[in-house]
Amino acid sequence: MARRPDHELTASVRPDGYLELFSRRTGKVHRCGPRGTTMWLALQRSDWQPESAAEEIAARLGVDPDSIRCDIEAWVAHFREAAE
Question: A Pfam family matched by this chain, by name (predicted)?
């Protein structure tokens, strides 16, 4: 099921390739490396559908979409827990 990020979340990709997520609600800043940035961008392009994002990334890397989907779901769960 698609779940868009919190409206209080601001995302920006830094020149060094790192994604920076800032929660105005909690005041927390999270930096993600290129892998997290890739997942974020794929999720955006897929309307926040982990399955579609995993297929996009897997096709580019030539790997199994199921393993990528598990990574995406774990990554998203981490940030949901951090926002609580």
Answer: PqqD
Q: What is the dihedral of CA 74, 41, 35, 10, to 10 degrees?
A: -80
Spatial separation of the C-alpha atoms in residues 67 and 16, rounded to whole Å? 26
Q: Tell the residue number behind the tokens 């409206």, with chain if given.
A: 7
Specify the DSSP element, H or E, that contains 82: helix 65-83
Is pTM, for the whole model, over 0.85?
no
Contacts 24+ apart (CB under 8 A), 60-64: none
Give the tens place of pLDDT for each residue, 17-47.
788 988 888 888 889 888 888 999 999 999 9
CB 9 within 8 A of CB 23: yes
CA dihedral 49, 82, 22, 67 (to 10 degrees): -30
